[in-house]
Design goal:
Number of domains: 1
Low-confidence stretches: none
Strand order of the largest sheet: 3-2-1-4-5-6
Mean pLDDT: 92
Helix content: 10-25%
Radius of gyration: 16 Å
CATH topology: Rossmann fold
Number of strands: 8
Order of helices and strands: HEHEEEHEEEE
Largest sheet: 6 strands, mixed
Distance between the termini: 19 Å
């Protein structure tokens, strides 16, 4: 059973999400216009799935897609430790990697994943996140594409969860 959650109007509406995803696709397309090889798109499970699928449908570039799963959260708080649950299977050496995250808050997971992917010897690694929460940052991380900057609050919907629930909400809400 899902824990009951109180939320009001969306922090970011479905319409705002759709518009920003389209503009992010344009930014990414422009940056990779001269790429010779297909882009290796790496999606961080599970939270970034909704965002990544919508983004890739609008990204008119040759892409290969793979997934990895990592976590540093339990419930509503960061554990401070990154755990890799499943790794990529796609060889990315020599390719341009686009890492897609749902949210960058402390920066621990995003930084760790960027370093981990760099160990696979890609040509480049760029980070695209739907949400950026700089007020929670504990470690500096370079973000190449940001959908929205959000305040210090727990957010859910559009892939982001609370105890594996509420991912399917069409907008993003704050809890509380």
């Amino acid at each position: 059973m899902l824990p009951p959650i109180e939320f009001q109007k969306p922090l970011i509406s479905a319409e705002q999400l759709e518009a920003r995803v389209a503009s992010l696709a344009e930014e990414i397309r422009a940056d990779y216009a001269e790429a010779v090889l297909p882009i290796s798109v790496i999606v961080v499970l599970k939270g970034a799935c909704f965002f990544a699928i919508d983004l890739l449908k609008k990204l008119d570039l040759p892409c290969r897609m793979d997934f990895l799963q990592a976590s540093s959260y339990s419930g509503m708080g960061s554990t401070g430790e990154v755990r890799l649950h499943s790794d990529i299977t796609l060889p990315v050496a020599g390719t341009d990697v686009l890492l897609i995250e749902d949210i960058v808050d402390t920066g621990l997971t995003a930084s760790w994943l960027a370093q981990h992917l760099t160990s696979h010897r890609p040509a480049t690694v760029r980070l695209c996140t739907l949400l950026d929460k700089p007020s929670a940052r504990r470690i500096a991380v370079r973000i190449d594409y940001i959908g929205f900057t959000v305040p210090e609050a727990f957010v859910l919907g559009y892939g982001l969860d609370y105890d594996e629930g509420y991912r399917n909400l069409p907008a993003i809400y704050t809890v509380g």
